[in-house]
Recover the amino acids of this structure.
């Protein structure tokens, strides 16, 4: 069964040795000695809005099951900036691998002819003098809403969860979208947006529109660099500070609970660096309600020496209910994550609540039938209960599934986990074969 952080606190050296050391007969070999780390597919999406095909970059995360996966859809303007785009894809992959966000596909949208025109709302006053080509944001949103996203739905197994991430002028597009098309994107991440647009009138209008809409659930993350980072980021940071204060005040006055908003400032980041941390923090903030705080719960159970099965059940169901509510709100699948339920089952087994442990492990196994760990945990609990025949069946399945995944995975942490699961299952099988106790 998988070790939680709490279980690793005391025997830290042993845990590290277990995950980093080798096991007899189990060695890691990369399935692809020469591999492409990021694969992007270029497609041409017909557009009546622009009277031509748009070149779109499509990226799907690796390391996921081949069937049954549905993707949230992240739209990333400025995909023509290859370094920034590759960085974004690598960071999204990392967050998915660590189960901090759901599976996400990314649609990279390079500008067609004029970036300033295509990403910005209409300009007035001094802004119109400095940006005479501005004003194509509505046309861009029309393309995204009526052509690109329906195309993605038709060609890929998508979720209704839409994410728009934009930097600088693209940040203006994200804010224009949340204000004028609140039904289009569930999550909007505006990185160093030029909120001084239209002499501050744009900022006021966006804050007012967001606060007055109490019907659409949305998450908005806005960031900026520090004041010391030159003439480009200084006005952005100042305007973003004003916007954040305005929006929070308006949300409070309107008693608006449908909008989750966070603003972060990165004092040491210049304008062209804010997308790096901002994308990671924005996505983590957006999906944080779906991250189950299992380690803190485990600590509470352990420190209170909880042994009563009803308390463990109540804790489990409360976590599951909270997760389901958050996942449903964000439009992502709601099956409770495997790891937290495994940890709760492990705790039940450690305090001799074997029947409850079997119930929780079986629930996990049924939900994640292709998980070696889920079968191993159930097998261990069944062995502790004296159900040898079913324990052997589960443990053998765990070994088979773990070996199959080890042959194909390119994630070292997954490989190491499978290695440990196989070793644990084999140890249990050996104990059962020798007629010894199967419990932990």
């Amino acid at each position: 069964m998988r070790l939680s952080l709490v279980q690793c606190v005391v025997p830290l050296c042993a845990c590290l040795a277990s995950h980093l050391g080798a096991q007899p007969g189990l060695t890691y070999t990369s399935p692809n000695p020469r591999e492409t780390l990021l694969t992007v597919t270029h497609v041409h999406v017909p557009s009546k809005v622009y009277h031509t095909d748009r070149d779109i970059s499509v990226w799907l995360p690796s390391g996921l099951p081949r069937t049954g996966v549905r993707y949230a859809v992240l739209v990333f303007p400025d995909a023509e900036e290859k370094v920034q785009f590759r960085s974004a894809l690598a960071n999204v992959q990392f967050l998915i691998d660590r189960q901090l966000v759901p599976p996400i596909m990314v649609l990279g949208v390079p500008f067609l002819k004029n970036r300033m025109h295509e990403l910005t709302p209409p300009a007035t006053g001094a802004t119109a003098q400095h940006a005479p080509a501005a004003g194509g944001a509505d046309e861009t949103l029309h393309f995204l809403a009526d052509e690109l996203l329906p195309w993605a739905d038709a060609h890929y197994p998508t979720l209704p969860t839409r994410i728009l991430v934009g930097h600088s002028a693209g940040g203006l597009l994200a804010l224009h979208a949340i204000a004028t098309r609140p039904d289009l994107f569930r999550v909007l991440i505006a990185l160093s947006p030029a909120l001084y647009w239209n002499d501050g009138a744009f900022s006021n209008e966006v804050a007012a529109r967001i606060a007055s809409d109490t019907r659409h659930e949305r998450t908005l993350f806005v960031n900026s660099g520090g004041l010391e980072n030159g003439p480009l980021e200084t006005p952005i940071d100042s305007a973003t500070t004003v916007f954040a204060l305005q929006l929070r005040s308006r949300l409070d006055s309107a008693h608006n609970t449908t909008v989750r908003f966070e603003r972060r400032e990165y004092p040491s980041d210049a304008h062209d660096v804010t997308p790096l941390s901002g994308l990671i923090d924005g996505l983590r903030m957006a999906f944080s309600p779906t991250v189950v705080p299992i380690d803190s719960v485990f600590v509470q159970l352990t420190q209170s020496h909880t042994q009563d099965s009803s308390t463990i059940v109540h804790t489990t169901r409360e976590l599951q209910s909270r997760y389901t509510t958050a996942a449903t709100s964000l439009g992502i699948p709601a099956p409770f994550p495997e790891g937290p339920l495994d940890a709760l089952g492990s705790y039940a087994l450690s305090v001799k609540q074997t029947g409850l442990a079997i119930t929780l492990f079986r629930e996990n196994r049924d939900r994640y039938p292709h998980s070696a760990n889920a079968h191993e945990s159930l097998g261990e609990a069944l062995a502790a209960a004296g159900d040898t025949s079913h324990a052997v069946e589960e443990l053998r399945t765990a070994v088979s599934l773990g070996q199959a995944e080890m042959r194909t995975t390119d994630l070292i942490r997954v490989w190491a986990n499978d290695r440990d699961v196989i070793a644990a299952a084999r140890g249990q099988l050996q104990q059962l074969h020798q007629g010894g106790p199967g419990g932990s």
Q: What stands out?
A: The mean pLDDT is 90. The two ends are 10 Å apart (CA to CA).
